[in-house]
Amino acid sequence: MRLLVTGGCGFIGSNFIRDMLSRHDDLTIVNLDALTYAGNRQSLADVEAAYAPERYVFARGDIANSELALHLFERHAIEAVVNFAAETHVDRSITDAAPFIRTNVAGTQALLDAARAFGIGRFVHVSTDEVYGSLGPEGKFTEDTPLAPNSPYSASKAGADLLVRAANETYGLDTVITRCSNNYGPYQFPEKLIPLMFSRAMADEALPVYGDGANVRDWIHVADHCRGVELALLKGRPGAVYNFGGDAEKPNIEVVRAILAALGKPESLIRFVTDRPGHDRRYAMDFTKASRELGFTPQYDFTRGIAETVAWYRQNGAWLESVQSGAYRQFMDKWYGGRA
Ligand code: NAD
Ligand code: DAU
Fold it and tell me: Less packed terminus of the chain by CB within 10 Å, N or C?
């Protein structure tokens, strides 16, 4: 298969490309990535060394540029698309929604237009559980849960999901939407909870926990999510939506304590800070449909996953350092400066 992956220099995309190329000898991947603050070509240095240029090609560019997408489709005879590219951080969407609308909404539509014009055989759109909004203490999100996004980020992802649905209904484009819970694992940008807490704890800096720390996320190891996306690509029904989750619901404070324990650092580093506005209380995924139709089952339990993840960040301090640019530090100072 000849696959266009977008956002492949980000956290999940880079894990997906590495895993797919190592297990499918007949696969070629073109990675279209704009290299925003969250995209890092270094995350795929080993892949470039092993597979470029025969089975791996990097193209720097914006998914909102339909002409570039069409050019890549033609030049590389692309058969399918997996769209990971997005602005992904909820806190950034609260300070400025514009890039989220540009990439997640307008960018997705531009890519759909190019896919339709070229006649792409399958378009997998990677979405999120956040489009469903927030749960109370009971119940889980199913694919039939109404969309009720609460942040500019999740609203932009819900908008994209609706445009993907429309491309399937109106033009018959073969689309599949995946919605996954919170990922963790190697190569995650250190603005997200787990690598942020790791990096601050290592530097003996205070760990900012929003609100009362009792918000719950359903954590899934990135390798399990990637396997789900692969299954959706190869076996998903046209027009279908599939939920993926890790069966590992944890309050944030428990996750932070687990990281401190793994590092042998004191809990006195924890600081409860001003809550995130519109902070969703709880996410939990019912992924029965993906298990039944695709054979999806998460393999990692959280204890093993977090131990491996902490070990990876410990061994890859240079990677962590290399992605923390001046602009990153500016955002962090501004955001956390207002919350202490
Ligand atoms: P990330 O922020 O780590 O990476 C995003 C990547 O997209 C970066 O490489 C960036 O350079 C690229 N990008 C951004 N705008 C672009 C544009 N206009 N054109 C081309 N490339 C662009 O994101 P992630 O955490 O790997 O998430 C990937 C996808 O998975 C996103 O669509 C996200 O909504 C979804 N998702 C993430 C999670 C999670 O826990 N991280 C969970 C469920 C779904
Ligand atoms: O659920 C899937 C989503 O998970 C993805 O769609 C998003 O792209 C991804 O960013 C993630 O969103 P969250 O907002 O859940 O992830 P984040 O790592 O930002 O926060 C996880 C939880 O930890 C959340 O309840 C907020 C809290 N938190 C986060 C940060 C950064 C803190 O308490 N302190 C922090 O400093």
Answer: C
Our answer on whether the CB atom of 13 is closer than 6 Å to any ligand 1 atom is yes
For 133, list phi and psi in degrees, rounded to 5. 90, -140
Alpha-carbon distance of 63 to 60, in angstroms, equals 10
Kindly report, residue by residue over 121-161, the tens digit of the pLDDT.
999 999 999 999 999 999 999 999 999 999 999 999 999 99
In short, whether 90's Cβ falls inside 6 Å of ligand 2 is: yes
CATH of the domain at 176: 3.40.50.720
220 membership: H or E segment, kind and range: strand 220-221
Strand duo 220-221 + 183-184: pairing: parallel
Q: Which domain holds residue 31?
A: 2-186+220-247+283-300
Q: In whole angstroms, give the CA distance from residue 83 to residue 127.
A: 9
What band does 340 get if pLDDT is binned at 50, 70 and 90? low
Q: What is the pLDDT of residues 67-85, one digit of tens each?
A: 999 999 999 999 999 999 9
Reported pTM? 0.98
